[in-house]
Write a structure and sequence with these properties.
Elements lengths: L2 E7 L3 E6 L4 E6 L2 E4 L4 E4 L3 H18 L6 E4 L4 E5 L2 E2 L2 E8 L2 H7 L6 E11 L8 E2 L1 H6 L5 H24 L2 E12 L5 E4 L7 E5 L9 H4 L5 H15 L1
Antiparallel strand pairs: 1-2, 2-3, 3-7, 4-5, 6-7, 8-12, 9-10, 9-12, 10-11, 12-13, 12-14
The structure holds thymidine-5'-phosphate (TMP).
Length: 237
């Protein structure tokens, strides 16, 4: 597979064309940002860990019958994926109150929900990724009703798959963000990444944060947390 010109550079990844029209290569960087790019830094080794972790989880999800963009891991930092056009929704699933939920609704971090919350943000950096509901998304013609139903169904099923996977690693899945894309024939598939950048992961015994909140909140031990998550996933197999 030939890596051709870069089509997109995001905050944490670069995306390249290939000699196959339907396939892209993603290349994971060590760059980290928070607060819509206001805070910038580097998490050494993050690109390798996120590439491998995301692929591991995508394979699990695919095995459970949810289509994903994953095709093949090419190197430590590079993965071959299906080309999609991203649906501009950040789909967030929450099992426990934390982060912006706690802030918006005045709920203490750590409150366990009876039912998971599914939340959408409009993926638009210029607007600061505002929260929106299904009817906003329909009005803005971001996705059809049928696509939104599929996305919510997939998001809740991915939550169940991931909750039990992380539990086996003695990690509690607090919340996570996922993104979906449309393939050239219009099929909705899981895209982007699933990693400690995009999930809140708490050690089930100690409650210690093992995710990007260590970077966002200047808690220290950022690289160590990512390495610990990787170690637990590798020893889980
Ligand atoms: P929040 O509580 O800040 O809204 O974050 C919810 C989840 O989404 C959390 O697991 C972190 C993840 N997330 C991203 O992946 N990208 C983002 O830009 C933000 C704000 C959150």
């Amino acid at each position: 597979m030939k890596k051709l010109e870069m089509v997109y550079e995001g905050k944490a990844k670069k995306v390249f064309k290939t000699d196959d029209q339907e396939l892209f290569i993603v290349d994971y960087k060590d760059d980290a940002t928070a607060f819509n790019g206001l805070k910038k830094g580097t998490i050494t080794g993050k690109g390798v860990i996120n590439n491998k972790l995301s692929n591991h989880i995508m394979k699990l999800i695919e095995k459970e019958g949810i289509p994903t963009h994953f095709v093949e891991e090419l190197s430590d930092r590079e993965t071959l994926v299906k080309k999609v056009s991203i649906v501009p929704l950040e789909v967030i699933v929450r099992n426990i109150a934390a982060g912006s939920f706690s802030k918006h609704y005045g709920v203490e971090e750590g409150k366990v929900f009876k039912e998971p919350v599914v939340e959408f943000s409009y993926k638009n950096d210029a607007l600061g990724d505002p929260l929106l509901n299904t009817r906003h998304a329909l009005a803005l013609e971001i996705a059809s009703r049928e696509e939104i139903d599929t996305i919510i169904d997939y998001a809740l099923r991915i939550n169940e798959i991931m909750k039990s996977f992380w539990k086996e690693c003695n990690i509690t899945l607090v919340d996570f963000k996922i993104e979906f894309g449309r393939t050239s024939d219009g099929t909705i598939i899981l895209a982007d990444e699933i990693s400690p950048d995009t999930c809140r992961l708490w050690d089930s015994t100690t409650g210690e944060k093992l995710d990007k909140d260590r970077f966002r909140r200047d808690l220290g031990g950022v690289e160590e947390a990512y390495a610990e998550v990787m170690k637990r996933v590798l020893s889980h197999d």
